[in-house]
């Protein structure tokens, strides 16, 4: 009640003041008034459906301020990247920003968007521990080159997982003495893009380094591809889950975790000192998770445009560990935070089409029953 | 919308700041009554968070109303659509395997960490060679020693409580020897049976088990519980001998206390609460208060962290259910359960006899709910029912066979027996309890391997036969080894809580309230203790 008593007269006063100002400006001439009107009218509210991993970015006040400067106020709702294309309420949104190109391309088909934007991307990588490097290197799985660690034999690593090879069976292993099977932990492939990208990568390797296309290829690789997920047991549905395990429970729970490079770098950048025990391994080949923005309205396209052209937004995206077309932002971020990541990844594959990926996911999902 | 809220908030702050002393108390009062409350369905393990609630409220402005329940009960309430804003339990992986629960959980964020491990008496740990952190036994070692009768421990019922469940799952996953997620065909019955044989004290909740362990520590070698609870027990000054924490070498299952959003309308409050709970202020206070580990590995824990392996949690509900069914019906020591049932005239009032009939028939198989399934009479169990009014009636005993499929006829008989019960006459509680106890003692002498318990249900004051005092005196006159059959009581109707506590206390049992949640719920809860 007290508020209203206070607020109402204040509002009246403000309105009065506004009127006065308007009257005065009108006296100053039509030109100035038009300019002011244009500015006020150009701030539009834009609604977006975004993958959960980008929620923090969109809600960052600095990001909001940068958009505001461009006349945009962004309201986001979180949605599973795989679910976005199937939503029936797409008309309520101006854009969608899922993780992973397959989901975005499917959405582009559904929404008939003429142009799409890829403002940033992040490679899939495997978070691991410095202590494990001698074992991984000693077994010819990992090699250091130009300061970065690469998983040079993904094919053998996947085969080990499929065969149920134990850590104890690896040679020169005195640091991880356990009968646990060698596994890369991931999210639930039925729910989350990061696991779907792991599947995209694994399916390529299992298919003799070819993108899976035909049904008979799917049938052939499914037993091994499915076991990569089934053997893990319970999996979290959001990409934060396995990473929380990695950070909070350490090597005993999570020796190898499939993550977005951005996740790892963002975590390290927020520590007073980057944790030297944590290392990121880059699969060779790897696959990018492209964060493709699909406009659903003209205003949605403005968001895509802003993210791809505005320097400040690009620099802010780099602070979340993302790479963009202009590599300088990412480089600056790494330098400022005393982090290391390879400037360029050369051996990068394309994920299969949305339809093929979906088919594989559904088939693996059935094995969980 | 959001902007408007902020502006209003800002105005409120300015207004309050400008109000001066005389209007401040009024403002506070209004603030308190308008404070947003959040209803939280919480696992009973979270009771130790209670002292931190004022701090949470002060920092976030959110008033948490915690309603406690056992782990299985929480899952069942979520399945049934109980309306809570949030749920907060020790481990939600089992819950999330259930599609109905998964549907209701809109978000889930872990808040603290504590592995489920073994607390072993220092001398025993030394004798077994388990006292060195770098030379911990495997689960198979533990099962072997347990099977040989060298290690008797307390553990909760894995079907009703998360700590017992985590230990049994850890054992099963480790001895399966595959190094990845457990599958039904890998469940190793020999190892599980060896382990289960040594479970000498059971309970439906981890907290009650800790108290019961204190009472019976002299005849036990250890206890399965959360590492944090074992630290608290060691610090509590009630132990005759300190417990060494044994982390099985091949791994354990860790509780990570996820806070779950159930009511999507409370998303903003949830986000705010999660941010606070994960923040340094709460995490520091939490580890000091509860001995659990903070989420941030770089933050100091109240007790030094140990390195250990984490075992995989199964991906399939069927695997977990097979393990729990196996534990109940195959692996564990079979139970001998006596039900001493009041069918005096007062049971004819207000649907009481109908509740009683339904509760027993429920245990005999008519209750199809999740908790109903796990509280059913089990294969190999011996069930005795002794009814009484002013006189003690004849006792009926049914012994179930090893195979669940062979028990249909027996279970039907128990159910039929319950359904024909008729109220009438006075109430001779203590004479009935004495007779049933003596009968159980006689069976125990013949067959000492079973887990014996006695449940007394009454709705009134004793007015025939032995008095409460006489029973207590008689009980005290028994030899110590004869006083180990736990007596549980269900307080119903006009029954006297004090007298029932005097009856159950000396045996190490406890009283359950049958009036609030109903007889069926009370009976099901007691099944966790049998």
Automatic annotation (TrEMBL), chain A:
It comes from the Bacteria. This is Extracellular solute-binding protein. It comes from Andreprevotia lacus DSM 23236.
Automatic annotation (TrEMBL), chain B:
One of its GO terms (biological process) is molybdate ion transport. The keyword tRNA-binding does not apply. Keywords: Signal. The keyword Signal applies. Residues 1-26 form the signal peptide. GO terms for molecular function: molybdate ion binding. Residues 336-530 form the VWFA domain. InterPro entries: ModA/WtpA, VWF_A, vWFA_dom_sf. SUPFAM superfamilies: Periplasmic binding protein-like II, vWA-like. This is Ca-activated chloride channel family protein. The lineage of its organism: Bacteria, Pseudomonadati, Pseudomonadota, Betaproteobacteria, Neisseriales.
């Amino acid at each position: 009640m007290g508020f209203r008593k206070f607020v109402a007269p204040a509002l009246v006063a403000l309105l009065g003041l506004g009127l006065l100002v308007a009257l005065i400006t009108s006296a100053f001439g039509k030109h100035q008034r038009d300019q002011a009107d244009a500015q006020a009218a150009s701030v539009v509210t834009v609604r977006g459906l975004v993958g959960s991993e980008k929620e923090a970015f969109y809600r960052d006040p600095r990001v909001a301020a940068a958009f505001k400067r461009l006349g945009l106020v962004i309201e986001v709702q979180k949605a599973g990247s795989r679910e976005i294309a199937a939503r029936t309420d797409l008309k309520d949104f101006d854009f969608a920003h899922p993780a992973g190109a397959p989901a975005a391309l499917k959405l582009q088909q559904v929404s008939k968007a003429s142009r799409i934007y890829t403002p940033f991307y992040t490679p899939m990588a495997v978070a691991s521990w410095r202590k494990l490097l001698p074992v991984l290197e000693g077994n010819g799985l990992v090699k250091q080159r130009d300061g970065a660690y690469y998983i040079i034999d993904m094919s053998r690593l996947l085969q080990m997982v499929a065969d149920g090879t134990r850590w104890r069976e690896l040679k020169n292993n005195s640091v991880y003495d356990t009968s646990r099977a060698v596994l890369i932990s991931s999210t639930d492939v039925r729910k989350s893009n990061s696991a779907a990208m792991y599947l995209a990568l694994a399916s390529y390797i299992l298919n003799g380094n070819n993108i899976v296309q035909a049904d008979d290829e799917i049938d052939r690789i499914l037993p091994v591809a499915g076991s990569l997920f089934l053997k893990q047991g319970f999996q979290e549905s959001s990409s934060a889950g396995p990473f929380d395990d990695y950070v909070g429970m350490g090597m005993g729970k999570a020796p190898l975790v499939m993550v977005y490079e951005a996740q790892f770098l963002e975590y390290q950048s927020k520590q007073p000192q980057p944790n030297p025990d944590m290392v990121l391994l880059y699969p060779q080949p790897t696959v990018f998770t492209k964060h493709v923005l699909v406009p659903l309205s003209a205003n949605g396209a403005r968001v895509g445009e802003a993210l791809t052209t505005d320097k400040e937004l690009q620099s802010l995206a780099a602070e979340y560990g993302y790479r963009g077309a202009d590599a300088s932002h990412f480089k600056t971020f790494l330098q400022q935070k005393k982090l290391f990541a390879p400037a360029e990844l050369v051996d990068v594959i394309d994920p299969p089409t949305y339809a093929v990926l979906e088919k594989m996911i559904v088939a693996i999902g059935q094995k969980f029953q | 919308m959001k902007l408007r809220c902020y502006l209003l908030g800002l105005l409120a702050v300015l207004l309050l700041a400008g109000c001066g002393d005389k209007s401040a108390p009024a403002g506070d009062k209004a603030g308190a009554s308008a404070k947003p409350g959040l209803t939280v369905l919480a696992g009973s393990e979270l009771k130790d968070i209670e002292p931190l609630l004022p701090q949470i409220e002060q920092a976030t402005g959110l008033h948490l109303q915690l309603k406690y329940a056992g782990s299985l009960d929480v899952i069942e309430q979520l399945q049934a659509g109980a309306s809570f804003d949030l749920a907060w339990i020790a481990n939600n992986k089992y819950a999330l395997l259930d599609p109905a629960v998964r549907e209701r959980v809109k978000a889930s964020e872990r808040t603290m960490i504590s592995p489920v491990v073994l607390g072993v008496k220092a001398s025993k740990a030394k004798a077994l060679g388990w006292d060195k952190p770098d030379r911990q036994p495997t689960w198979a070692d533990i099962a072997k020693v347990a099977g040989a009768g060298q290690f008797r421990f307390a553990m909760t019922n894995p079907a009703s409580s998360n700590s017992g469940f985590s230990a049994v799952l850890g054992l099963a996953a480790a001895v399966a020897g595959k190094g990845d997620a457990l599958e039904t065909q890998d469940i190793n019955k020999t190892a599980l049976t060896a382990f289960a044989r040594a479970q000498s004290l059971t309970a439906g909740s981890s907290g009650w088990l800790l108290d019961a362990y204190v009472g019976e520590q002299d005849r036990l070698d250890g206890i399965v519980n959360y590492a944090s609870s074992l630290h608290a027990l060691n610090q509590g000054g009630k132990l005759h001998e300190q417990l060494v924490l044994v982390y099985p070498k091949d791994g354990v299952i860790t509780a990570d206390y996820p806070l779950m959003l159930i009511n999507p309308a409370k998303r903003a409050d949830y986000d705010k609460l999660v941010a606070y709970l994960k923040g340094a202020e709460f995490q520091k206070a939490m580890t000091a208060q509860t001995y659990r580990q903070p989420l941030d590995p770089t933050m100091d824990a109240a007790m030094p962290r140990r390195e250990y392996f984490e075992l995989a949690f199964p991906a399939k509900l069927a695997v977990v259910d097979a393990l729990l069914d196996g534990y109940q019906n195959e692996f564990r020591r079979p139970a001998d359960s006596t039900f001493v049932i009041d069918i005096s005239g007062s049971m004819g009032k207000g649907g009481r006899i109908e509740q009683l009939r339904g509760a027993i028939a429920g245990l005999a198989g008519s209750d199809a709910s999740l908790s109903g399934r796990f509280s059913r009479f089990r294969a190999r169990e011996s069930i005795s029912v002794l009814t009484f009014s002013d006189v003690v009636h004849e006792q009926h005993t049914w012994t179930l066979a090893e195979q669940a499929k062979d028990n249909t006829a027996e279970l039907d008989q128990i159910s039929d027996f319950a359904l024909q019960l008729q109220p009438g006459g006075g109430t001779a509680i203590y004479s009935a309890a004495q007779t049933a106890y003596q009968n159980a003692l006689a069976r125990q002498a013949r067959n000492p391997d079973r887990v014996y318990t006695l449940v007394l249900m009454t709705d009134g004051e004793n007015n025939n036969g032995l008095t409460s005092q006489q029973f207590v005196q008689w009980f005290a006159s028994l030899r110590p080894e004869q006083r180990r059959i736990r007596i549980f009581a269900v307080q119903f109707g006009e029954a006297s809580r004090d007298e029932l506590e005097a009856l159950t206390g000396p045996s190490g049992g406890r009283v359950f309230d049958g009036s609030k949640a109903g007889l069926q719920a009370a009976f099901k809860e007691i099944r966790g203790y049998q």
